[in-house]
User: Fold this.
Amino acid sequence: MQYVVLLITWLSIAAVTPALGAGQSRSSFSVAGTLIPGACRLEFANGGRLMLEEMSIAEVNKRNGMQAEREIAFQVYCDDKMQTRFTVSDEYRSSATQPNPSAYTLVDTQSGVMIGNFELLVKNVTADGVSVGLYNNNNWQSSAHLSIDTEYVFMSALTKNLALGIPEASEAEVISGTLSVFTTLNPGIKANTKINYIGTANFTLKYD
Assistant:
């Protein structure tokens, strides 16, 4: 009888003792990444540079100033359908002798003196192939002269929401249009050497 008791005790001890060499270790595998918001970019044909033909100073003065109209295409490309708006500033505004809210300054590249100006008109705008216009200050237009430091929204035609002050900006991946450029050189220019002139309109595009 005593022998049986000893046998049971040994079996109990063996049941709670870990087997020799039964270790463990732990390793991890992770998946990580980064999400960035979508972006839009504005591009002009010809790299955003419009070159006017040469003209003699005498001819400009004879015409009492030169006026020219040219057109250049533009596109806004977005990563996804987004609402876009923009403002335009005048690079050489400080040289303007008689600042005009919708006239961008042309200056002599050597002296920095203003010798004329140019105006910008946006027209024929489409958003993903659908005709849209420009909205600003509770006003929607199918085409618009761009005033300096004024925000414009690419937007479809008038809707009832406009009366409530809640304009519906167009969501699009591609916006296309035409920029008409009206250039005027001042009369009475005097010089006995070639004059190179430049004017720059800086577009700031915003999107969400």
